[in-house]
Amino acid sequence: MDIIKKQIDQAPEKPGVYLFRDEKGKYVYIGKAKNIRNRLKGHLQQLKTDPKERKIFEESSKIEWIITKSDYEAFVLENELIKQYKPKYNVRLKSGSGYPMLVITDEDYPTVLISRKYGEIKGEYFGPFLPARTARAMKNLIHKLFKLRTCDPLPKRSIVCFDYHLGLCSAPCVGKISKKEYSLDVKSARSFLSGNVKKVIYELYDRIQDYTNKMMFEKAAILRDQITAMENLIQKQEVLGLPYEEADIFYFTGKKVLLIVVRGFRIVGKNFLDFKEYGISDSFVGDVLTEYYGKGNYIPDMVILNEKLEDTDNLLRWLSKKKGKDVKIGFEILDEIKNFIGRNYSFADISDLKKAFKEMFGFDMPKRIEGFDISTLQGEHTVGSCVVWEDGSMNKKEYRRYRVKTVKGVDDYSSLREVLYRRFKKYKDMDALPLVLIDGGKGQLKQGLIVKDALGLKNLRIFSIAKKEEILYTDDGRQVKLFENKELLKLFTKIRDEAHRFAISYNRKLREKEGLKEVLDHIKGIGKKRKEILYRTYKTVERISQASEDELVKLGIPRRVAQNIKSYLS
After folding, report:
1. Which has more pLDDT, 527 or 515?
2. Hey, what domains does the chain have and what are their CATH numbers?
């Protein structure tokens, strides 16, 4: 520490970047400053109050700096160095790349592709899609509704491919659709993705009338489905008529950052940004923005924040240069957006809960609690669930489900030990251990303690919660009647019930899949491959029974076998 203090006294009073490094030369933290010495002294002053600052100094053996000509050069250099070296204590998104966007390609017969870096594919970009999994779902929907080609690049074929029979592609490769008709599909897809659908809907109605007059009813039906999807999109839009066509709204509340994406004067996406371990500092807001846009995410015309920004001018200059046109930054959240946030999210103060937890159990409430449950039906399809409560709310991205592999028949204890063992092994890589909550009584708690001891996790705390009586059993032998403490009752029952729901839903899904396959085993002509096709397409026996014979044939199932299916299920 003394060496570092001497280095700070020797630091230049000029703009630049400073770098904390450990004994092995790895970068611990990288920062920028108009005056390097003053900024480093600021770090020293925060040692007593900021745990993150203490860790930076404890793990660092020396400080280096790079002097720049201006504070803007320092801003750019800091961003590049953080991207290159990924220091432990700088703000970093958990995702290693940007959020996915959809691209309508710039070609004679465009298709839709997914990209995580703006500009890497030539075409028109839509998004980002939050959460990320919606990008794939939206791409599939675009193919289903608007039949944009699924092949990339456009091939030369003599016969249509399987996707044409599935209704996912209009087969421009073999001339099944004219360029004029395909262009309307592309225009409709663009309108659907941007949310500006009103103009194209009227054009689709005109085209339906034209197809109907020519008795081309199948094509008219396709357009009717497109119109229905667009009208549903309009009806589902909760916040419309915003005063900016495109904007990213960053709503900061403590360590949580909610991103709301506005495109086409409406909200099209919302999600919390996930960061690796970090602390709150004066530069936190700016660090979030440079990290987010530095990963290649699309930069809109307007960026709106509910918190003050330390270095607005340099950030604006950097964003505008990356976008190729001027970007604006605003600091006022509209009432419509505030009301939308209030309806969809709760940022309740959990200080009372933390206080009640410590008074009851004698240690600080952990940031993370993981809940476990086992679900089985007469020993069949036994599964386990792991749900995660984090910083005041359930974090569904962190949920995990387990199919029990080593236990036969009904044996809840053995099943629980297998699931806990598989999960607890992951704890060895965690910086901070969660609190474990198991659905059950003393017997279930004992299984957790057995696994804990087997893996040598000395500091892991484990509780279990019994239904009806709502008694919490702790690993130090206590029995807490939760009805006597409403705050703790609400916390633990919420996690327990969610673990139970998640386990049952997985068990049911496996039973439905297995039940469907068992039914299909009795139908002549249905082998392993056709069972998978039918399950992937319809999921349940009821949906297969509702499918027409022609629809089954389009899936590649021979008509004779399709007739067998309809006959058996009738």
Report:
1. 527
2. 2-85 (3.40.1440.10), 246-344 (3.30.420), 351-510 (3.30.420.340), 521-569 (1.10.150)
